[in-house]
């Protein structure tokens, strides 16, 4: 059985035909510059789905779409799309269903990634897990008793907007001292710029830390410790089997993982801390496509 997974990103739409073992066997990519309009993007998605099915010659059972930002997965409405002008409250599911006679589901991209890790990645055989994506934004997805937990209005999992202090910097979401305001890409890079007196990339910051640079190690340790404050609460509250760390920032690997594990062991309640495993995500760049392809079965 094959499904099409679509990772609707702010700079690219990545699409792939995914088999029942989670292998991406056919790909398409559409650029999404900010000049792109809504109707053109929707047409491009439809044409590429048709093309993937035609050229691959496979029987496709459905299409799953992961969208950055808030969606109503029940009604199939995308509330907004960061990069595309005029994209507000778009009933994407019904628009696409009219043109394609296929089973079609959509959800936010972190929920899709979480499903991907749960079925084919680092969360295999775990019924209770939390998946965190570290990047420009800090996202989260939750699996409880083997099912994606979406919450009362389909908006659960916003780990990046958990406050980690009573007072602190204001966040775009309207909150104060949200985790993302401390460990989102932009803020890590700001701190690196202050420490090194010039712009450096996350990759450079990681390689400096790996070669023992104390200032770089201190930045990564601080990122891990801030993340730990939120995750200790999650470990105590949800008692997950695993916490999976993914996203671009997770390439820092053990620089984040080791202090994170230390903090959770020291601060979380004993039973929960002993039970939980903190691991890196496995699906890397294809996580969005593979996860989205699973939405039609979830
Ligand atoms: Zn926030």
Can you characterise this structure?
This protein is of the alpha/beta class and 298 residues long. The protein has two domains: 2-113 and 286-297, Nucleotidyltransferase, domain 5 (2-Layer Sandwich); 124-281, 2-Layer Sandwich (Nucleotidyltransferase, domain 5), CATH 3.30.420.40. The chain is 39% helix and 23% strand. A hairpin with a 2-residue loop joins strand 10 and strand 11. Helix 3 (109-120) packs across helix 10, helix 6 (202-210) crosses helix 7 and helix 7 crosses helix 8. The structure holds zinc ion. The site of zinc ion has 6 residues, from loops.
Rg over C-alpha atoms, rounded to the nearest angstrom: 19 Å
Q: What is the overall pLDDT average?
A: 93
Topology pattern, helix = H, strand = E: EEEHEEEEHEHEEEHHHHEHHEH
Return residue spans where pLDDT drops below 50 for at least 5 consecutive residues. none
Estimated helix fraction: 25-40%
Bound molecules: zinc ion
How would the global form be characterised?
Answer: globular
SS strand fraction:
15-25%
Main beta-sheet strand count, sense and barrel state: 5 strands, mixed
CATH topology of the largest domain: Nucleotidyltransferase, domain 5
- Corresponding CATH superfamily of the largest domain: ATPase, nucleotide binding domain
Number of beta-strand segments: 13
Q: Strand order of the main beta sheet, please? A: 3-2-1-4-8
Q: What's the CATH class of the largest domain, please? A: Alpha Beta
Specify the number of helices.
10
Structural class: alpha/beta
Q: How many domains comprise the coordinates?
A: 2
**N/C terminus separation:** 15 Å
């Amino acid at each position: 059985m094959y499904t099409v997974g679509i990772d609707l990103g702010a700079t690219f739409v990545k699409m792939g035909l995914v088999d029942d073992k989670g292998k991406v066997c056919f790909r398409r990519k559409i650029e999404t510059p900010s000049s792109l309009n809504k109707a053109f993007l929707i047409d491009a998605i439809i044409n590429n789905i048709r093309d993937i099915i035609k050229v691959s010659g496979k029987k496709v059972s459905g299409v799953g779409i992961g969208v950055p930002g808030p969606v109503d997965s029940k009604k199939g409405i995308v509330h907004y799309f960061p990069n595309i002008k005029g994209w507000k409250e778009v009933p994407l599911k019904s628009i696409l269903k009219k043109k394609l006679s296929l089973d079609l589901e959509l959800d936010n991209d972190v929920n899709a990634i979480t499903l991907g890790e749960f079925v084919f990645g680092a969360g295999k055989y775990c019924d209770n897990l939390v998946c965190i994506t570290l990047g420009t934004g800090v996202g989260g997805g939750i699996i409880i008793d083997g099912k994606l937990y979406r919450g009362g209005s389909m908006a659960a999992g916003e780990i990046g907007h958990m406050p980690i202090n009573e007072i602190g910097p204001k966040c775009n979401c309207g909150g104060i001292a949200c985790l993302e305001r401390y460990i989102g890409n932009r803020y890590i890079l700001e701190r690196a710029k202050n420490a090194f007196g010039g712009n450096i990339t996350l990759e450079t910051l990681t390689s400096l830390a790996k070669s023992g640079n104390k200032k770089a190690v201190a930045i990564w340790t601080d990122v891990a410790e801030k993340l730990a404050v939120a995750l200790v609460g999650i470990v105590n509250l949800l008692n997950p089997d695993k916490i999976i760390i993914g996203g671009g920032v997770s390439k820092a690997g053990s620089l984040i993982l080791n202090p994170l594990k230390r903090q959770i062991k020291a601060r979380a309640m004993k039973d929960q801390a002993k039970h939980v495993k903190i691991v890196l995500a496995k699906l890397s760049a294809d996580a969005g496509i593979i996860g989205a392809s699973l939405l039609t079965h979830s």
